[in-house]
Amino acid sequence: MDIFNEDPSAGIAFSPGTITKESITLRANSIVGDVFSGNLCPLETYIKSKAISDVASSICKEIKDDASPFITIEQLEGVLKHTKIQRKVWDYIALLIEKDHEKIDYLDYEKQNEIT
């Protein structure tokens, strides 16, 4: 992946299989040398480097999240919140049934049709 010498008409070629630690180190040293010698704009180089770092971090996070059989604290809190909301809803339904216990026979479908 050569984001620093990309060809706008061809796009960016990305092949994780051909990237090695040594090739990344050599390319990084070359880029740093070009920045210090004035051949590359430091700001543009930093922005492109940050983009590569963000992509790498995203890939690592996705792999880690998919590999972990456990849920995160945020997911657990979401489940707990949803469960509390469901409990309130069912408590309210139970309260309505208790109030209407003597008034409505829920098993008699003919009476239900008359009420509605």
Keywords:
116 residues, 4 helices, mainly alpha
What does this structure look like?
The protein folds into 2 domains: 3-67, no CATH class; 73-115. It contains 4 helices and no strands. The protein starts with 20 loop residues before the first helix and ends with a helix. The protein has helices at 21-37, 42-67, 73-99, 109-115.
Low-confidence stretches: none
Count of separate DSSP helical elements: 4
* Rg over alpha carbons: 31 Å
What pattern of helices and strands is seen along the backbone? HHHH
Strand % is: under 5%
Mean residue pLDDT: 77
Topology summary:
Elements (H helix, E strand, L loop, with lengths): L20 H17 L4 H26 L5 H27 L9 H7 L1
Could you write a compact summary of the structure shown?
With about 120 residues, this protein is mainly alpha-helical. The chain is built from four helices and no strands. It is rod-shaped, with a radius of gyration of 31 Å.
